Structure formats: C-alpha cells, structure tokens
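Appendix B, record 7
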Amino acid sequence: MTMGFWLPLIVLCSSLFTGLIIFLLPEDRSGLRTLLNMTGATVKVIGVFAMAWGVLAQGVDYEVRFAMGLGFDFLLKVDLLSLAFVSLSSNLWFLTTLYAVGYLEGSPNRSRFFGFFSLCVTASTGVALAGNLITFFIFYEFLTLVTYPLVVHQGTPQALAAGRTYLWYAMSAGAVLFLGVVGLQTLAGPFDFISGGVLAAMDQIGTWEARVVFTLLICGLAVKIAFVPLHGWLPAAMVAPAPVSALLHAVAVVKAGAFGILRVVQDVYGKDFASQLGVLDPLAAVVVATIIFGSLRALMQSELKRRLAYSTVSQVSYIALGAVVLGPLATVGGLAHLVHQGIMKITLFFCAGIFARSRNIHRVDQMDGLGRTMPVTMALFTIASLGMIGVPPVAGFVSKWYLAQGGIQAGQDWVVAVLILSSLLNAAYFLPILHRAWFRPCLGAPGDEMPEAASNGAWKAPPGMCRIFEAPWMLLLPTLATALFSLAAGVFAGWEWSPLGVAKIISAGRGAFP
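Structure tokens (predicted):
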C-alpha cells in the first residue's frame, strides 16, 4: 500500500484519534489537552498540503476503498473539489482550535467539548473526501451526531431546547436523504462520483424517477444548508459557544449541506442533465428565496450572533446559486464562495465571541463606540462585514462578480438583480453596526461600576473613559489571520493558487470553464 492509500487515512484520523484520546483526559490536564489539539490540527494541515502537492504537482491518485457488502464500497477519494473543501476545513480547524483553547480557558467540561470538537472535524473531513454517495451519507449523519453535544454544551434549558430542535431537523432530513440514496442505488446501482455526472451517461434512467430522487436528495441536504423553510435550527443553535458557532457556519454543518448539493448537481446528475430534467429551476427559486429571506430576517435581529446566523442562511445559498446557474463563470463564483464565505464568516463569529467574552457584549445596541475601545477587533469585523456586503477588494466581491457574470453569460439576468438586492440588504444590516462602532460615543461594559446604566444594559462612558481593551492573543491571532486571508483572497484573486484561481482549475478540470 502506497501513500496514495495511507495519506487520506492519516488526514481523516488525525482528528479522530485526537478526539478519542481527549475524552479520556481529566479536566485539569489543560496543557496536555492543548498539545493534543494543536498536534492533531497541525498533522491534518500538513497532510492536506501533501495531498494538494501530490494531486496538483505530481498527478498522484489518492484513494482508499473497502468493500462493505451488498455491492457498496466505503470510498475516500481526493479530487479537486474535495481538495478545496478539506483544505478549508483543515486550516480553519487549526485556527478555531487555537481560538477555542483561549475562549474556553477555565470553563468546565473542556475534555468533552474538545473531544466532540475533533470528531466534528473528522466528520467534515469524511464528507469532503467521500468518493461516493454511500460514504458521503455515513459521514453526513455522523456529523449530526457529533455536533449535537457541541450545541448543548452549556447545558442550559435554552441550549437543550436548541439541541432538540437541531436533532429533529437533522434526523428528519437524514431519513429523507437516505430514501434518496436508496432510490438512486436502486435506479443506477453503486457508483462513484464522476465529474460531469454519472446519470447523464445512463440511458435507462427514467425522467420521472430521476426527478423524484433528485427532490429527495436535495430535501435531505436542504436542512444543513438551511434553505427556507428548513432553516429554523440554525438561529436557535447560536446558544452554543462562539467556537462552535464559527465551526457550524464556516466549516462543518452548513458547508456539508452546500458541498452535498454541489456533488449531487455536478457529480451525480451533471448540470446539463439536471437542466434537461427541469429540476434546476425549482431549486433556483428556493435558493433565491433563501438569499432574500435570510437577509430580511437578519435586518430584524438585535442580538449579534442571531444577525450573523441569518446572514449565513443567505450567504451560503450563493454556493448553491453557482450550482444552478448554467453559466460556467457562475460555477467558478460558487466554488470560490465555498472558501470566501468560510473565511469571512468565521472572522465575524470570532469577533462576536471576543465581544461577548471580553466585554459581555451580545447585542447590536451595546456596540456603540466599540471601535474606540477595541480598535483591532472591530477593524477585523469591519473587513469581514464589507466582504459580506461585496465591497472590493475583499473576497466577497469576487464571488458576487463571478456569479453575476455567470448569470449574464447564461442569459439569466435575474441573477444580477438578486445579487444587487442581496448586497443592498447586506449593507442594511452590517453598516449600522459599523456606524455604531466607529462613529458613536462609547459605552462601558455591563456590570462595570458607573452610576447610571443605559436601557440596553451598558453605561455611557464619560469623556476620557474609552480605554483600549483588546482580547488575549489566543483569541485575536486566529481572527487576524482569517480577516487578512479574506482581504488577501480578494486583492490577490488573480493569483493561480488563490481561492478564485483554484475554483477556475476545478471548473476547467470538470469541463465547465475554458
């Protein structure tokens, strides 16, 4: 057995073994727990880099295949699409682990938290590397099970209620997805993911049956990507600690749903065959409704993390938009946004966690003058917010530009209108935050000793009291890295190995981009 066999297993198991060992550690072994966490994350990053070098520079085929019976194979396989997702997952896991160690310092049940945290990343890695639909389904459902303890980690009634909501949504969707997987295996038999779509080359597949199976598969994936009206679990899950929120929104659950839709549309059906079946237009309608609805709901939220959660409902659907718009440039934009949304949104949740942990700030109306007291953190929040709006040169502008160009290319001009409306709504719920933070007088943190409290729980600081107070380096350094990456991904978008450049390579390798 060569490294083509062992390396994907090393990448997968680096977080699996880390998590299993951490479960056994007593709470007071924080130093050893941190060492294990960072070692596992480092091994995964190095392993992914080695796979990327092997695939892109040396043409190595990485594949792990085991027969499971009934004609099904457990298959891990590295292609360009899986490489993009697993690269995002591994690098953001490293940064989120560093952030989580600082964020949870002194908190109870850290061994349980970091154990499930590592298993969650293992599941995301498995989703990324899955070479067929059966393997994808196994890791997709494993992701549900290991994420639940993270959502309910704090053990409050609100957290437990959010966990129940998440399980009801996720397990119901899993059952629907299973029906779709079984139906597809019945129609087409076992098969591996193939660029351009497996079913497109199968003449025996009936049109009606193919439409039904497509609907089941998309409905099963719609919960994790948070399509309307199946999005309700995502805002509720914001009771989880900030590192969990960052992981859910940037790497794990919602990205697994988006990645699954890319696989179904591009590698199971093929975009052209799906278009011939007439299933892309209804999916596009759901995507557009989700983009607009998520932004409108974000406008109504006064709690910062809930506003960011509804922003995710909207923003992740851009990835699906790239899958349903027929123009090749839209495919590039959707693939680039798989990375761009991750690095921008994780920056926002890192900042929200810093505000909550350092200053006990949870609401938008508590953020007055925050740019004066936490200028570095607020500057990083500003970069990511402008990227979400689509202001150049941050990464979000690049994604939206290519999505719009793809819509024009395909004669689907409605895409441009949707993106303009969405960007205006993005501005409507992000710019007021930035105005409060940079242009209003500062507020003190709730609980500080001041004689007169404001109605929002904070106090108005008198002149001279706006002292700079930044977060510890373990919280600030990962946030700085992701914010700078968000900016660099836009500034250096023309570089061959930027997220956009990689998206072009992926699309060209799939015959979708010249």
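Remarks on this record: The first strand starts at residue 63 and ends at 69. The chain has 20 helices and four strands.
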